[in-house]
Amino acid sequence: MRLKISLLKEPKHQELVSCVGWTTAEELYSCSDDHQIVKWNLLTGETSQIVKLPDDIYPIDLHWFPKSLGVKKQTQAEIFVLTSSDGKFHLISKLGRVEKSVEAHCGAVLAGRWNYEGTALVTVGEDGQIKIWSKTGMLRSTLAHQGTPVYSVAWGPDSEKVLYTAGKQLIIKPLQPNAKILQWKAHDGIILKVDWNSVNDLILSAGEDCKYKVWDSYGRPLYSSQPHEHPITSVAWAPDGELFAVGSFHTLRLCDKTGWSYALEKPNTGSIFNIAWSIDGTQIAGACGNGHVVFAHVVEQRWEWKNFQVTLTKRRTMQVRNVLNDAVDLLEFRDRVIKASLNYAHLVVSTSLQCYVFSTKNWNTPLIFDLKEGTVSLILQAERHFLLVDGGGIYLYSYEGRFLSSPKFPGMRTDILNAQTVSLSNDTIAIKDKADEKIIFLFEASTGKPMGDGKFLSHKNEVLEIALDQKGLTNDRKIAFIDKNRDLYITSVKRFGKEEQIIKLGTMVHTLAWSDTCNILCGLQDTRFTVWYYPNTVYVDRDILPKTLYERDASEFSKNPHIVSFVGNQVTIRRADGSLVHISISPYPAILHEYVSSSKWEDAVRLCRFVKEQTMWACLAAMAVANRDMTTAEIAYAAIGEIDKVQYINSIKNLPSKESKMAHILMFSGNIQEAETVLLQAGLVYQAIQININLYNWESSK
């Protein structure tokens, strides 16, 4: 991925440009110390002066009023706030009319920001005050007052907190009075810029110590750059939170959210004082010290799947390469490409107005349909269909382009969903709620209605990342998730009346992925890379779970690695420095899954005898019990030396009635309550009492 820079020969402003802001993906406003506000149209390449401000107003910061989400085709922002050196902020219309000027601070107003809903405005100034204003410019409260100038401010994702600078310190202050304030030393020099992203909840800071840093919302450091030659004067998150841009003297850098750098450009700009991302996240504008406005396009993104590699070469052109035969196809689009995804033998591309669906078998005839909204922020794929997320909602389409469903829940905010908080399988959509992070909503893919009896999945802690398994029957669909304590849990998606168990699979798990070909789960645990060959073992026989795992040392991936994909038996991991590492796992467990799903038990036993691995036998034992095939279970348990279980299975086989066999199999898996119910329904009351006596369950056996 890199930046394609465009810079005019002659600057349009006579003095330094202090701030820039996008109205649509093709239109930008810039303000300068020459008192001009200039409008740039990127489609026609024209620039026009909107207004010349009075000579005593030197603009410092500009922020457009946020668009109402989910309105057709990116309606334009109509008003912006402009802060200036005379202690006022000005509300200015799109046409350049100053609607209102408000005396705000003593000395310059250094930054002004609307919250995400557009219901409040925060301003900060040289006088060290942080003030909250209403939409119309009425003072609501003075949030804080300190002795040093506040250079930058940002709203928290829920608009309930404000982040601001205080010399070398960063401070997060909630709007509620008496709430706890978070403060930490972030840089060795004065902090010049901050930004807080609403999708990934991460914070960026830039300082005079020539470093930029990434923090989580608790103030824990995630990344710190090497010192640059000059102070970092600007940082900005891309809207989807996957990338950020960094500006310094003659320097523009594109970075991944984890901190490592994709591209470094050295345009002739002077210091870049302000960076703004376009609404669709495809381009950046920078306000330059020498009067220029620098534009940079994000190009050369790459998508890989099996033997195909797709590269965005220009704004409207993609190149597809098949590495097996070196065949190259060029895909041309009418509008600029915004998002794309390549998986399950399909490439889905969203442009500003349309969606294209290509099959990897035929690149020449895509299926094209128009999009309801403007900007797609996320594309997720499953084997049978794909999901588009934009500002207005979540939409599920088949690969033939047929609209299937659009799940909704109260208080849904689609602008903050990402690949960690939404998951898709052939029959289920799972969405983690932002209002209450302990809740996961589950929907039927075909109808968009809530799953089962309409209950959502509720966990005792906040959930960080969710993932649905991709194969098997709908009734067996499982969801794995990581919570705030980094524990990995698994539970069933189908929830009818009875409370489904949420069972812990592992601890200190940082990232996870399901295989796309069978229900094998992999994750990075503390210092180990772990593969759960048959996660359902926890429902059948928890004792043998450790025997069904594959583990290897993960220290080679350095800290904070991330699993990018798990295709077939190949896992791709991105290290903290941005490099990709590929790991191949054994192909045999996948073959075993295939045999068992088509009930080829003899072939499964033959495969295990051929491979001669304990993990395979342990997986087969659990699969056999889950599918009630006790003959195979007996062979498999004998192979891993679980003699007591072999004897118990033998005793089950000799039982007279079908119901009592069934009850004892349930007991074998630890489902004592269900076993008792089966016996009572069959009228075998004596046996039901007997199993409770055997378990010393005196209360029940009365």
Automatic annotation (TrEMBL):
WD repeats lie at residues 102-134, 184-216. It holds the Pfam family Beta-prop_IFT80_2nd. It is found in: Cell projection, Cilium. SUPFAM superfamilies: WD40 repeat-like. The keyword Transcription regulation does not apply. Residues 300-588 form the IFT80 second beta-propeller domain. It comes from the Eukaryota. PROSITE patterns: WD_REPEATS_2, WD_REPEATS_REGION. Residues 616-700 form the IFT80/172/WDR35 TPR domain. Keywords: Cell projection, Cilium, WD repeat. This is Intraflagellar transport protein 80 homolog isoform X3.
